[in-house]
Amino acid sequence: MTATIIDGKAFAAKVRAQVAEHVAALKGQGITPGLAVVLVGEDPASEVYVRNKGKQTVEVGMNSFEHKLPAETSEAELLALIATLNADPAVHGILVQLPLPAHLNSDLVINAIDPAKDVDGFHISNVGLLGTGQKAMVPCTPLGCLMMLRDHLGSLSGLNAVVVGRSNIVGKPMAQLLLGDSCTVTIAHSRTKDLGAVCRGADILVAAVGRPEMIPGDWVKPGATVIDVGINRIERDGKKKLVGDVDFASAVEVAGAITPVPGGVGPMTIACLLANTLTACCRANGLPEPEGLTA
Length: 295
Description:
By secondary structure, this protein is an alpha/beta fold. It is built from ten helices and eleven strands.
């Protein structure tokens, strides 16, 4: 068996097209969704990511507000900017790019964002709402994974799902989303006893542990759907290479479907950021949420 490759790049393009369609309809009512991105310091990877976010925001017809602050920006200055963005009706989504410089308290900063505008889904209120099955802003990467799973499998009800990784950004919210779709969910991690046996019981295997090629093909149940969230830079044969948390070469021979790295989950993250901004805008204006673009 060779697995079906779940093309995240193509799926993300489809999501962006749906978002653009909804944005055009909102503009017809005199409403333009707006996303504010705040970057503190000059981390090269963050700068590239923020530039891509801004470009894609404009491409779908939204307003993009970029705030680039020097690395020595004080906590008080950053919190004052967030308060201004919270109060601005033209801004529907606020994202503070992480990591922040060491002198800034990330938790304090994230929790200063209005939860209704927290398009990253990291605010403690959104974490609590998601955990109790209420309407929340959902973290972008898990939301993208859920969208791809629903698209490939249809109903997820009753399936055994194993999430390898327990981070607040991916592992925990992913487990909550799968529970919300009536999966039987196990959260596993690097210290799980007999991790291979746990993984082999999964109809859906989500790898988000941050260790290159940690999960070999013989840990994958034949026919399972594998979502590889890992993005790890390694050196192989003298060349730098991006690999996931799953050993793709062996897993592709066993799985029913699998996301590649790169080109799988990665492109979905920004697409879901745009979807979240659209959702936040609809909620702020008392309009129906865009179908298929939320959890």
